[in-house]
Design brief:
Blueprint lengths: L6 E7 L3 E7 L5 E7 L9 H10 L12 E8 L1 H7 L6 E6 L5 H4 L21 E5 L2 E2 L5 E3 L3 H13 L4 E5 L8 H13 L3 E4 H4 L5 H30 L8 E4 L5
Parallel strand pairs: 1-4, 4-11, 5-6, 5-9, 9-10
Antiparallel strand pairs: 1-2, 2-3, 7-8
Helix pairs in contact: 2-7, 4-5
């Protein structure tokens, strides 16, 4: 009988609007639409919309057992990427390859354009590590932990909190990346993205771009997920939301 008293919610949290479909305990569907950003009225649109449909006041805890399931898709990370509002990021890469991601594949979408405008990089600083592993796995140079620490300490002092680690041939021989990642985590960086874990591809540029995006956006998405989950779970036995990828333009 308890299950019959529960609501289920499906939520699309876009950049402009948040759309909510709720299923009442009797099975009827109701829709609700509100602005995704309205800080004077509420902290989070999704949670506020759930409260609206449940007939609760602003900030009122969601009663235990009233919510059966919450499934949400969001463009929070996409919007942060488009607006360049991600986490400040340092790229840690093999010496001599600091500009590899900037150069990319030298693709020219407009081949006859006389003025080339390249997008800004998501990382704001580069720490080069004097390490090298050949394509056959032969180690030419191992990283110097003291030198790596010095570079990361400088980034941390300047307020950078995300680290993207991309070494040559690390997709197959990741030991050096693991070493530097362990050092960065030991130093207290809250976000450490490592290329052989994020995207173990043979190509440095593709692997590097993906790793930088992961470092840049993961903290933003994680904070939002934790915020919504905390509000839904505060003072209740409501389940944690199930998350999906948002592809809308709302």
């Amino acid at each position: 009988m308890a299950a019959l008293a529960q609501w289920d919610f499906w939520i699309d949290r876009g950049g402009t609007f948040t759309d909510i479909v709720g299923r009442r305990p009797d099975g009827a569907l109701v829709a609700h639409k509100l602005l995704s950003e309205n800080p004077e009225a509420y902290r989070d649109a999704a949670v506020h919309g759930i409260r609206d449909l449940l007939g609760l006041k602003k900030g009122e805890p969601i009663p235990a057992g009233r919510v059966g399931a919450v499934k949400m898709g969001t463009t929070v990370a996409t919007n942060a990427l488009l607006e360049r509002k991600g986490e400040r990021t340092v790229l840690v890469t093999t010496t001599g390859f600091r500009d590899a991601l900037c150069i990319g594949y030298q693709a020219r979408p407009k081949i006859f354009a006389r003025q080339i405008i390249k997008p800004d990089m998501l990382f704001e600083r580069v720490v080069e590590v004097d390490e090298r592993v050949r394509a056959d796995g032969t180690v030419e140079r191992a990283p110097d932990p003291a030198a790596v620490r010095a570079g990361l300490e400088a980034a941390m002092r300047d307020g950078i909190k995300a680290v993207a680690i991309v070494f040559m041939h690390a997709y197959r021989y990741p030991e050096h990346e693991r070493m530097v990642a362990a050092l960065a985590r030991e130093m207290g960086f809250p976000q450490v993205s490592v290329s052989h874990e994020v995207s173990p591809l043979i190509k440095l540029v593709g692997r590097g771009d993906t790793t930088v995006v992961d470092a840049y956006l993961s903290p933003i998405l994680r904070r939002y997920v934790e915020q919504v989950a905390a509000e839904l779970e505060a003072g209740s036995s409501s389940p944690s939301p199930l998350w999906g990828e948002g592809r809308g333009e709302g």
